[in-house]
Amino acid sequence: MIVPVMMIKRFEYGRFFRILWLILFPFTLFMLGLVWAIWPDSGFGWRLLVESFILLYSLYAGWSLWATFGSVELTSSEVRIRQLGRERVLPYEAIQKVWRNELALFIKTNERTIFLERHLDGYRDLIDDLKNRAPALQINSQAQRQQPLPQTFYGRFEAFLFSLFITLLCGSMGTGIIWSAFDESGFQMVLMFFFGLWPLLISGLFLYLSFTFTWQMTLLPDKVVLRFTFHKHEIPVEHLASVRLLTIKSNRSPEPTLVLVLTLADGRSRHISQQVMPIPLPQLMDMMSHHYQLPRSYEKEATRVHHTEFGAGSRRPFSHYLNGESRVMVQSLDDICRWLQQCEYVRDSELFGQRDVWQHPGEFETRRKGDCEDHALWAWRKLKELNIPAEFVVGRTVWSETNNGVHAWVAFEENGRSYILESTNKKQLIFPLETIQTRYHPWFSVDMNSQTYRFAPVATRES
């Protein structure tokens, strides 16, 4: 039996946004006092409006700064949220909804709604993981995927309203400051004009951004229709060659952007950003793959993935597991399989009293007990000793509606053919990749030279 363990995953806040809020919080307090000091008494109404806005933003910046010292941990049965000096525990069964907007990241349960600072590192992985672990979210995701066509998705309306609100607010603030400046003279007037221009510039920027959310996407049985503010694109289904998810990094933003790329048969493409989409792009890709019969696979990209991203128990570089003492000698793949069949699958909580521990292969040989990572790391080490190209992989497996979860396995090649070594399945350990790949959804892998890879899903029409 395949035993997909709910691997412990930990999400924290990056240094960039912590420093950003550390700068913005005292800066907004300084602006609060400065506006009060320089504003003339004749413009008390406008001053009160501006002061109220700055005060609210100061409180938000202070909360955001404090929140970035927290973390979110996904265990086998619950979510542990450490924030603002306290820990909250949410069972997966209680989680009803998870979403993110321009203000915060929300996790809603039967009894309450938890607010998190929105720039949590890997928040998209967190949302995807929760949808795979929380029963209510699994049902919602499956129901959404199987809804009949046509399906229409509009630009994020709340983002449009938010942008419009900021446009009006900043425009009013800038106008009020400049209007009050006419009552002053000299340096005071110049200073007021200067402070009034900034809100007007921000107002113009958000007005421009608001138009990016006024679009519509319709999935019809025979075509995909993209309607923008001033033009429209129609893509016949037979011209749709592939649908793929890409994570695009830019020097202009510390946060990578998730993009769905629709590639046409003539080589042209259309890009849809998660920033303008009301539903998660992986969910949209599942719908398109299902309704347009596009077989799904994964593209592997060599990139730097820190070993801690593989799981909460991954505390050492991968070279640690490929070196060091190992007393079990193997001569073939059959030897590896026979030895693993004599090992016992035991969860870390039972074996160590801890939520996630990755054993060194030598330690695993002594105990002959462990979970999926321990089995897979040992098999990976032994394949290297046999000079068989292999990768240690983490991701998600789906064997049935009740037997699925985050898992670790080994992928290897022999005689030009790709295989999966499923080290926790004691009856059969070796599977040809093409016979089982629909059940395995890889996220990251590492080869024997410690080169790491990230996998991106792609749905391609069979030629």
Walk me through the structure.
The chain has 463 residues and is α+β, with helices and mostly antiparallel strands. It folds into 4 domains: 9-140, PH-domain like (Roll), CATH 2.30.29; 157-212; 217-294, PH-domain like (Roll), CATH 2.30.29; 307-456, C8orf32 fold, CATH 3.10.620.30. 38% of the residues lie in helices and 29% in strands. The strands form 5 sheets. Strands 12, 13, 14, 15, 18, 19, 20, 21, 22 and 23 form a 10-stranded antiparallel β-sheet that branches. It has a 4-stranded antiparallel β-sheet with strand order 1-2-3-4, covered by helices on one side. Strand 20 and strand 21 form a beta hairpin. It is globular and about 90 Å long. The mean pLDDT is 86.
Which helices and strands occur, and which strands form pairs?
Blueprint: E1 9-12, H1 15-38, H2 44-67, E2 71-74, E3 78-83, E4 86-91, E5 95-100, E6 105-109, E7 113-116, H3 123-133, H4 135-146, E8 151-154, H5 157-181, H6 186-210, E9 216-219, E10 223-227, E11 232-236, E12 240-250, E13 253-264, E14 269-273, H7 281-291, E15 296-302, H8 319-322, H9 333-341, E16 344-345, H10 348-351, H11 361-367, E17 369-370, H12 372-385, E18 390-398, E19 404-414, E20 417-421, E21 430-432, H13 433-436, E22 440-446, E23 452-460
Parallel strand pairs: 16-17
Antiparallel strand pairs: 1-2, 2-3, 3-4, 5-6, 6-7, 8-9, 9-10, 10-11, 12-13, 12-23, 13-14, 15-23, 18-19, 18-22, 19-20, 20-21, 22-23
Helix pairs in contact: 1-2, 2-5, 3-4, 4-7, 5-6, 9-12, 11-12
